[in-house]
Fold RRM domain-containing protein.
Amino acid sequence: MADLLVDMDYAIMTINSQIVYKPTSQRDDPEPDNDREVYVGNLPQHYTIEKFVNFAKKCGSIYSVRLLKGSGGLNKGFGYIMYRSLAAVDIAIDTYNGTFLPESDTNKPLIVQKSLRNTIMMIYGLSRGNNNKYYIRTEINYFVINHPSLLLKFECEDDSKLFISFKSLKAAQIFKKKLKDTFNMYGAKMYYFNDTENWVSNQLRINKN
């Protein structure tokens, strides 16, 4: 087991199916915005939380580290690092994405990307034939006018779906609560798009078409 010097006011704990290294009190140390979190995929399944925390610290000050538990004491091959600064996020991605860990048991390079964490909304069931795409875009534009600080941008779209990103999970929840019934009326649905590994390829494919 890798040595880990646990920071003051931090602890390793198990929460649902995750092993988490985080502050013991979020009241005194609230969680940063979601844009400071990175997803790390293709981790060795025997990788421990201690090793993952030490790995994360090499790129900057961390707020929390989460490792998803698998079976038999192994992990699921991916986890999340919440940094305290955007600079650390960029350093982690530039340093580790596409590289290999010495302990790798997958023969696959690390995938290090910004975490989606319920901040990307996919709206699907759109159709130019019945003009619902036009009405959906109009409703979104009204939402942006009334809540300019919540929505970040339209990410990409094609004839049947579009993706938009939000500044936080709470912002996405407000959007979904206010527009869910209207979208249903137009025959459109929405859900949180959390597949980080396929996000970049999905963006490139849609934007190319």
